[in-house]
Amino acid sequence: MANELLDAIEAGIKHGSPPPKPRKQTDPAKRLDFASQKRMGRLRDWRAAAAKKAGVTTLAILPNYAMFEVARERPRDLQELEATPGVGRSRTEKWGTEILKLVR
Fold it and tell me: What is the CATH number of domain 31-103?
């Protein structure tokens, strides 16, 4: 199979690189505006520090999809935060006040 492999490599070099993969179209509703991106950055930094302090993974503190929703929706109080998918009562009780400060 070595000769076949070398022939395939030669053909690739001769014909150039393969065409680029098509980019997936993103849903505009799932994009973050500039202010939301800044909130996302603050949440990401806080989550990393909180996970290190608690000795758990970052996803145990706040899953990615929940962090995205918090950054995008910007809950105003603990009830709105608790209702955010992926946050819930337990995370709100443990870290709700800190999270709300980060998104203000």
Answer: 1.10.150.80
| The pLDDT of residue 19 | 66
Place of tokens 């994009």: 31
Residue 83 corresponds to which tokens in the numbers above?
């209702």
Q: Which helix (H) or strand (E) holds 5?
A: helix 2-15
Strands (E), 46-93: none
Token code pair at residue 20: 């680029």
Q: How far is CA 48 from CA 52, 53, 55, 61, 65, in A?
A: 6, 9, 10, 9, 15
Distance CA(98)–CA(43), nearest Å, equals 10
pLDDT tens for each residue of 38-55: 999 999 999 999 999 999
